[in-house]
Design a protein that fits this description.
354 residues, alpha+beta, four-stranded mixed β-sheet, two-stranded antiparallel sheet, 10 strands, globular
């Protein structure tokens, strides 16, 4: 927290983050222009806070509890209405959010988190929606809505009308976690083992979350056993519709019960992942974070971990090089997987709506 009081540190963080994402057109940070310990001047970044955008969609649902009637939405200064649909099903918030907007937000948000974790080892320490801005390219005036009409809304805010250059801007870089190689390996090992449904390896990774272990041998064995039971109940691995937030809260519960010490950077990684998971649940509940991360996690695991799940402490130069070469390919594979997922979602919604 003390770092946030020294704005020169925040300026340095912004410089590093801008450099790390210099090749990413969809993610940016303000650029510091001048900084002292008390004052920082940054570039102006246009957009709206994601929290405010989602609150606007919540307002649509509150004003229009039943999915029936005519919807008027302002898009690029023009009002769209004209169509009607009928039904009695209550409109849910995520159903009011355009699919293309939801896709961009959850996929780019997750990809950004994974890049910070797997490649940069430098994590923005406060990734809640209030620190994420978006320039939508269209205006949503909830006061112009008369009644909810999901069909009209989906056609009014279409992929053609959304900006082709959507971008998120991450602000408030006062706190940034600089991960050591061991911290990154241990946390990635935990997530990979959850993806494999292996509670025992997940427990061993969690026990390495502190440099000063306090558990006895008997307590360690009990912790590993309970973590294994937790995975059997909540986490069967990739493709089993794992609720990542539910699993992580269970892991934190075991850590608290057994009084396993959790160093600060691990707490940051967990909280940020819960923030991404919460955002995903709000805009697209069917998007599974663990399955979406699979291409990246498995590529990284094959290169950096042994078959027993332990990290490769001394990777060769070739292995380290392959990590940087394989990550863009893994991101491409993830992009294809995301595209197929949202294509299926559109087909499902079209059948429901029509």
């Amino acid at each position: 927290m003390a770092e946030q009081a020294h704005l020169q540190i925040e300026a340095y963080h912004l410089e590093v983050l801008n450099y790390n994402f210099r090749k990413w057109k969809q993610v940016k940070f303000p650029r510091p222009m001048y900084a002292t310990s008390d004052v920082i001047i940054e570039t102006f970044e246009s957009g709206r806070i994601v929290t405010d955008i989602l609150d606007s969609f919540d307002a649509i649902v509150k004003k229009n509890p039943v999915n029936e009637g005519t919807l008027m939405v302002e898009v690029n200064g023009k009002t769209k209405n004209e169509m009607k649909c009928s039904g009695s099903k209550n409109l849910l918030t995520y159903e009011a959010i355009p699919m293309d907007f939801a896709r961009f937000l959850v996929t780019v948000g997750l990809s950004t988190y994974l890049k910070m974790l797997l490649v940069d080892r430098q994590m923005h320490a406060d990734l809640h929606p209030g620190n994420i801005m978006m320039d939508l390219g269209w205006n949503l005036d909830t006061s112009s809505i008369s009644r909810s009409s999901l069909n009209v809304y989906k056609s009014a805010i279409s992929s053609k009308q959304l900006s082709k250059d959507l971008c998120i801007t991450l602000v408030d870089a006062g706190m940034v976690a600089q991960l050591s190689k061991e911290e990154s390996q241990n946390f990635v090992g935990l997530i990979c083992s959850l993806g494999n449904g292996d509670g025992k390896i997940a427990a061993r990774c969690a026990l390495r979350f502190t440099k000063e272990p306090t558990l006895t041998l008997k307590q360690r064995e009990a912790f590993i056993k309970d973590m294994d039971l937790l995975c059997q109940e909540r986490c069967r691995g990739y493709g089993s519709n794992v609720d990542m937030g539910h699993v992580l809260r269970g892991v934190l519960g075991l850590i608290r019960r057994y009084k396993v010490r959790l160093d600060a950077n691990y707490a940051t990684l967990v909280v940020n992942l819960l923030c991404i998971e919460g955002l995903s649940k709000r805009v697209c509940p069917s998007y599974n974070l663990l399955d979406a991360s699979r291409p990246l996690l498995q590529s990284y695991q094959r290169l950096c971990y042994r078959k027993d799940g332990s990290p490769n402490e001394n990777p060769s130069m070739l292995q380290r090089g392959l990590v940087y070469v394989s990550m863009p390919l893994a991101y491409f594979k993830k992009s294809i997987s995301d595209s197929l997922f949202f294509l299926r979602q559109k087909k499902i919604l079209s059948r429901i709506m029509y």
